[in-house]
Specification:
- By secondary structure, this protein is mainly alpha-helical.
- Helices cover 71% and strands 0% of the residues.
Length: 93
């Protein structure tokens, strides 16, 4: 797996788990849901930050944006994708 793939999965997991945590908090507030989703969200956040920090040739902006809670992974992905050179298809020269 490439860093962008890992970052994409971690960013999605981070965003989904924080959304579910807030939904649980605002509705039924089940302790079991919080105790399951909290560590999952924390792990996804840490994977997002570490992946962005260790990405080869990542600009400093992407590294700093990865620290933003809940959406930092997506912000870092956006910056990283703009810095990755375009892949040529077989017909292009």
């Amino acid at each position: 797996m490439t860093n962008l793939t890992v970052l994409k999965v971690a960013a999605a997991a981070e965003a989904v788990t924080v959304t579910l945590l807030f939904a649980n908090l605002l509705t039924v507030h089940w302790p079991a849901a919080s105790s399951a989703l909290g560590p999952t969200h924390g792990t996804a956040y840490l994977v997002t930050v570490v992946t962005a920090l260790t990405a080869a040739n990542a600009p400093a902006r992407a590294k700093w944006l990865s620290f933003v809670p809940a959406v930092g992974g997506y912000l870092a992905l956006r910056v990283l994708r703009s810095h990755v050179p375009a892949v040529r298809t077989a017909g292009e020269r």
